[in-house]
Design brief:
Blueprint (H helix, E strand, L loop, with lengths): L1 H8 L11 H8 L14 E4 L8 E4 L2 E4 L11 E4 L4
Antiparallel strand pairs: 1-4, 2-3
Amino acid sequence: MVDEWDLTDESRRLRSRTRTVGEYFAAEQSLPKPLPTELFETGRWFTPRVDRFGQVNVRGNAYSVPVRFIGHQLRVLCCTPTA
């Protein structure tokens, strides 16, 4: 069903533009660069200490962890917001 929608959408024109959606897509298809081959970190590492309630605070938010980690320092990866 989605493939059918894509095919019908290719002939659609946006407002007063001279080319169709499919023609714009064909022209821009070679422009994106390939994805990088090396891995990269998408967040930020923190090392909070687990408090006596079994929680860690990361960037103003408290998260529960198993009580066996109370008093230990943990390594936490916090994803950065995309906004």
